[in-house]
UniProtKB/TrEMBL annotation:
<comment type="similarity">
    <text>Belongs to the NAD(P)-dependent epimerase/dehydratase family.</text>
</comment>
<dbReference type="Pfam" id="PF01370">
    <property type="entry name" value="Epimerase"/>
</dbReference>
<dbReference type="InterPro" id="IPR036291">
    <property type="entry name" value="NAD(P)-bd_dom_sf"/>
</dbReference>
<keyword id="KW-0560">Oxidoreductase</keyword>
<feature type="domain" description="NAD-dependent epimerase/dehydratase">
    <location>
        <begin position="3"/>
        <end position="160"/>
    </location>
</feature>
<dbReference type="InterPro" id="IPR001509">
    <property type="entry name" value="Epimerase_deHydtase"/>
</dbReference>
<keyword id="KW-0520">NAD</keyword>
<protein>
    <submittedName>
        <fullName>NAD-dependent epimerase/dehydratase family protein</fullName>
    </submittedName>
</protein>
């Protein structure tokens, strides 16, 4: 089976390449930047998800797509629309045209970033995006839902928290994912027989977690890791957060802080 990874040169793409290397499938890597040091099971294309011809070539012979490409910062709305609105639609449309069965969409916890950390939420809550980035990632989730219903794709949206070797601050003790746990969710999206459309949180089994990941567990997710093993070091080394900042109270952290106007208490009003 050939799997296309868009945005494969980025941090998440590089990490998933390592995790998926032993799965016995071909990885086709698409990015705007050239990718060096390809493994035997990898091939690469240089191109942009804005270019539909590039996407058509990339989709040939593909059984599943892991869509990571797009705008990953809280840039201006035009950059968000190019990367996360038009770009996401282009990827799903190209997959449909090519007869690709499955798309795993890298969403973000920033789609619910203004929920207070005192809450514990599942994936069935109303969206509360904390940024232009979170707003347009929410659009991508809805594109996936429409393509699942209208065209029969099988779609898993993963609201990634923070994926890296270890959490680096107090908030990320709640939203961290290990590489192997994120890869497990990706594999579920690529292989689960009964999946039509679902949204899950891309987090490990963190005891301090904000998210109820019941939907993922019902799909067979069994996370191996918990950020708590790093908690003592983080709490000792990282300064306490400033309570006057809304991001100290909100799940989205930096996304919630950016351009926020008014009292912190407002996010507790609904």
């Amino acid at each position: 089976m050939t799997i296309l990874i868009t945005g494969a040169a980025g941090i998440v793409g590089s990490g998933l390449r390592r995790e998926l290397a032993a799965d016995g499938q071909t990885l086709r890597l698409l990015d705007r930047q050239p990718i060096a040091q390809l493994a035997a099971h990898e091939d690469a294309l240089v191109g942009d998800i804005a270019d539909r011809d590039t996407l058509r070539r990339a989709m040939q012979g593909v059984r599943g797509v892991v869509h990571l490409a797009g705008c990953t910062t809280d840039a201006d709305i035009e950059a968000q629309i190019d990367g996360n609105v038009r770009g996401a639609f282009n990827v799903f449309e190209a997959a449909r045209e090519a007869g690709v069965e499955r798309v795993v969409f890298a969403s973000s916890h920033h789609v619910v970033g203004y929920y207070p950390r005192t809450r514990r939420i599942g994936t069935n809550v109303l969206l509360r995006p904390d940024s232009r980035y979170g707003l347009t990632k929410g659009f991508g989730e809805q594109v996936g839902a429409m393509f699942a219903d209208k065209y029969g794709l099988r779609v898993l949206c993963i609201r990634i928290g923070y994926v890296d070797d270890k959490p680096v601050d107090r908030r990320r003790l709640s939203i961290w994912s290990s590489w192997r746990d994120l890869a497990q969710l990706v594999r579920i999206g690529l292989t689960h027989e009964d999946l039509r459309y679902a949204v899950v949180y891309g987090v490990s089994n963190n005891i301090r977690g904000f998210f109820d990941n019941d939907t993922a567990f019902k799909l067979g997710y069994r996370p191996h890791d918990d950020a708590e093993k790093y908690a003592a070091a983080v709490l000792a080394e990282v300064p306490a957060e400033d309570p006057s900042l809304v991001g100290t109270h909100a799940m989205g952290g930096w996304g919630a802080n950016n351009e926020y106007v008014g009292p912190v208490e407002r996010i507790y009003e609904w």
